Each structure stands twice: as C-alpha cells, then as structure tokens.
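Dock zinc ion; give full complex structure.
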Amino acid sequence: MRIKAAVLEEFGAPLEVQEVELAEPAAGEVLVRLIACGVCHTDLYTASGADPSGYAPTVLGHEGAGVVEAVGDGVSSVAVGDHVVTLFSPQCRECEHCLDPRTNLCLAIREQQNQGFLPDGTTRLSRDGEPLRHFMGTSTFAEYTVMPEIALARITPEAPLEGACLFACGLTTGLGAAMNTAKVEPGSTCVVFGAGMVGLGAVAGCRLQRAERIVCVDLSQDRLELARGQGATDVLSGGLDAVQQILELTGGFGADYTFEATGKVAVMRQAVEAARIGWGLATVCGVAGKGETLDVVPRFLITGRRVAGSSFGGVKGRDQVPKLVERWLEGDIDVEPFISHRLTLDEVNRGFDLMERQDGIRSVIELSA
Ligand SMILES: NC(=O)c1ccc[n+]([C@@H]2O[C@H](COP(=O)([O-])OP(=O)(O)OC[C@H]3O[C@@H](n4cnc5c(N)ncnc54)[C@H](O)[C@@H]3O)[C@@H](O)[C@H]2O)c1
Ligand SMILES: [Zn+2]
Ligand SMILES: [Zn+2]
C-alpha cells in the first residue's frame, strides 16, 4: 500500500513528508494504522546527525499509538481492531533477559532493529523499488507501520490514543525509573533533575510510590510549575549550587533517591552527590553526548551511594505499559498537561522547532485524517 510518511533524507535537513510503499505484514508482524505520535528528542538527535549509529534515508518516529489493521501468520497476542502502543524496546517473553525480572533489555531483535530492519533482516518500507529502512523498529511518523508483534503493547480501547502515545517513550521512561529501577519506597525523599517529559514522569512515579518529599530541579520556572502539578513538593532552580541546596533541604544528608533526566553529565554527577550518604540511589535516565563520561569521586560510592541506569524505565513493555495506561484512566497519572501542541504529519518539522525552543513538553502528531 502507499502511505504518507516523514522521511529523513539527509542529516541536518528537514524531514520530507511524501508517499512511500509499505508491504503486507510477514509472519510474526502486524500492520498498525497510526492515530497519534509524539515528537521526541531521539528523533531530533538522529535527524541532526549527532547520533553516531544513525542512518538515512529512514522514516523517523517512535512514540506511536494506533489500531491493528492486519496481522501476519502466527500472530496471536494482538488482533485486528486492537489498540496498541509501539515499543522501541520489545518484549519477546522468551529470551534470557525477558525471563529475568532484573532487566527489560530484550535480546530477540536488537541487531536487526539497530540496523533498520525487521527481524527477518528485510524492510517492509520501500520507495521506487528500493528498500527504505525502519527507525527504532517503529517508524511511526507515518499513516501506517509494520512492526513485530513482540514490539506492540495492547492497551484498553478506552484510552485516548493522543495521550497513550506518550507511554511509548518519555513518560514511561520517567515513571519506570521511579517505580521499577529505583523502586522508591513510601515515605522517602526524592530529587528529580530535569522537568522535561522524562523528569516529569519520574516526579509522577515518585508520587505513585508514595514518596513523602519530591524535589524537582530545572532551569525553567514554567517546567517547575508543571512539576508541582505532577506532585513535586519542592522546586529548585538548577545550577552549580544545586547539590548544596539539596543537602540543606535534607538535614545535610541528601535524598534517598535521585533521578537525572537532563542528558548532561555534570547533572548526572550532581545526582550522585545529592544522593544520601549510606544508601542513596542515583538513577541516570539521560542520554549523554557522544564520548562524554560521568565523573564520580569514589568516596561518594564507598560511603554507600549507588548509581543505576534506566532504559525505558526498566519497563517490560507488553506487560507493563498497559498497566500504566490503566493507571492514567483511573486518574493516577495526569497526561493532558504534557501535550503542548497538536500537529499534522505535514507539520512534523515544526515539532522539532518547538522542541529546540523548549516550547512545551510534547508535540503530538495526529494522524487520524
Ligand atoms: N533512558 C531512556 O530510555 C530515555 C528515554 C527517553 C529519553 N531519554 C533521555 O532523557 C533525557 C531527558 O529527556 P526529556 O525528553 O525529558 O528532555 P527535555 O530536554 O525535555 O528535558 C530536559 C530538562 O532538563 C533541564 N535541565 C537542563 N540543564 C539542567 C540543569 N543543569 N539542572 C537541572 N535541569 C536542567 C532542562 O531545562 C529541561 O527541562 C534526554 O537526555 C533524553 O535523551 C532517555
Ligand atoms: Zn523517545
Ligand atoms: Zn526477549
């Protein structure tokens, strides 16, 4: 079928919305009609050429939600008409990592996915007879996509898909960092550095875990206001004295749990230093620039602080994303404040401009034409 999609033709150039070919789903694959898709930093990172593993041409987008239109042979966990959230982090439920509760890094299709192929090493996307590579196994800046069954989370049809798409990446990353990776305990003190989509999700996750005190640190007052709406009890302006300010707020000890959601290695270091002596856990969510490293004075670790990293919040997507979506519908998570702009697919580059200007938290592309 012919579909409209936003193609990254060349690094550093605007995406070009055009018609491309999408083949039928093969065995184990699913055709999804996309309804909504968030615009995330990772799309921009790849489009800019900064990502060393990036490739072009490709159809970008990875924060999708939509409806199953057709299924390939052997697909049993989703059916036509089901509502789904796309997962750049799949869950095969069979590999060594899927069977282990300690990680969500499914091993099943990593290599092919990283190279832009579906699990059988080919693409369903093409243009003028030439294969066109998929992006993050998702390619959701498009009217339709074909994805492996193991990379789709089936959610309740009651969830509006414009909000559900945010659970495909940033929001789940933040929620999961607090709920899965750190496993914040009730009554604890938490600090979240960064109040973008990931940091705000972490604030909400700390609240859901019944943290007593949640301090959010950012440079933007508008974003700190949003953090209050998600449950932050204190807000601080970030900067060189952030650690000192946190120590003062916590009787000189530091916080039980700290979270970094800025992508800056200097802030990651602050997250370690603001964690409590004895048992504080710093969870790193941000993606640092190429070649950057995290500097930690070992004394901080010897005296009991720990550092963890979190990819997609440690969330096993097919099992846990539907449950997080349920909690949204139950009123535990407030998604609406994250949707700052609603765009058409033709306006995708405006989504990048808004993100670069830090205008709003998320632009959502609505595809239901
Ligand atoms: N681990 C994962 O699976 C995963 C998934 C999605 C995104 N990410 C990464 O998480 C990070 C955050 O993503 P986002 O979408 O929320 O980004 P964002 O740019 O919207 O938010 C980052 C926030 O950090 C704030 N900030 C910058 N410098 C600061 C400082 N010195 N102190 C305090 N705050 C500061 C900014 O004001 C901004 O509000 C990015 O690095 C992104 O690549 C990781
Ligand atoms: Zn993302
Ligand atoms: Zn697996």
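Observed: The first strand starts at residue 2 and ends at 8.
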